[in-house]
Amino acid sequence: MEKHFSVTFTPGQTAEAILVLETAELPKALSQIGLETPRPVLVVVGGASKISEASFLAIQELFVQVLAPIAESLGAYVVDGGTDAGVMRLMGEARTKIGATFPLIGVSPDGKIALPNDPNPPEDSAPLEPHHTHFVTIPGNDWGDESPWLATVATLLAGGNPSVTVLLNGGEITFRDALYSVLANRLVIVVAGSGRTADQLASAVRGEPDCDERGKQLADSGLLQLIDLEDSLNCLAHTIKDLLTSW
Predict the structure, then answer these.
(1) Structure confidence at residue 117 (pLDDT)
(2) Separation between Cα atoms, residue 125 and residue 142, nearest integer Å
(3) Closest residue by Cα to residue 71 from 42, 46, 91, 98
């Protein structure tokens, strides 16, 4: 049974949330929190760690100048992991910085998130990102448990509209996120030059020697497309928008 509740970060800053125990409950649950109209979907996965300051600033600009404006112009849903770290924090901050109104939905394991003002948060938990508008919490006590749910939520929200995944940087869980996007037949836009998992996947797509075997298997799906962090913001915006409106 799903459980609908609100998350209050500060006075006047509240997000709608729902705990879902079975994937079969997701359509009804999304409707309960006001997410029932199909729209294009932008999924964002990965991280922002172990990179230079210049690379971090470039990724930050990608969110502010490209990803958030595209989502706003298309009236898209944006779906990510929902916690206050990495690309999820960057997405929330970018949405607020440009004054956007698109729904920003976090999908997180219930056993790993700390709700605001919770006196007894789960061990090794992470706070929710405060600029998100909606949260779907799912059963799980480990990071990565949310990966198949996140992919399913994105598919349901799209309802036949275009949807793509943008993958930046990231660690082990990002491979899992990429896998579930591929299993959902969702194009994964890999931001080469953003570090770690993204660069390993880029190496596999390019067919470079000694590339990661998991990356090679994902690349063989034909659903990985590369863009380069060093490209101009206008070029990146044009490429991502074209893919999101056509895929």
Answers:
(1) 85
(2) 10
(3) 42
Indicate the DSSP class of residue 24: G
pLDDT tens, 81-96? 999 999 999 999 999 9
Listing from the earlier edge strand, what are the strands of the sheet with 13-19?
Answer: 3-10, 13-19, 134-138, 104-109, 77-80, 41-46, 163-168, 187-192, 224-228
- Lookup: tokens for 86: 């990495």
pLDDT tens-digit readout, 109-160 = 999 999 998 888 888 899 999 999 999 999 999 999 999 999 999 999 999 9
Exposure string of 5-41, with b = 16+ CB inside 10 Å and e = fewer, is: eebebeeeeebbbbbbeeeeebeebbebbebeeebbb
Give dist(CA 190, CA 6) in Å, integer.
34
114: its two tokens? 């700390």
- The Cα–Cα gap between 70 and 239 comes to 11
Q: CB under 8 Å to 208, separation ≥6 — which residues?
A: none
pLDDT tens-digit readout, 44-78: 999 988 888 989 999 999 999 999 999 999 999 99
Cα gap 115→119, rounded to integer Å: 9
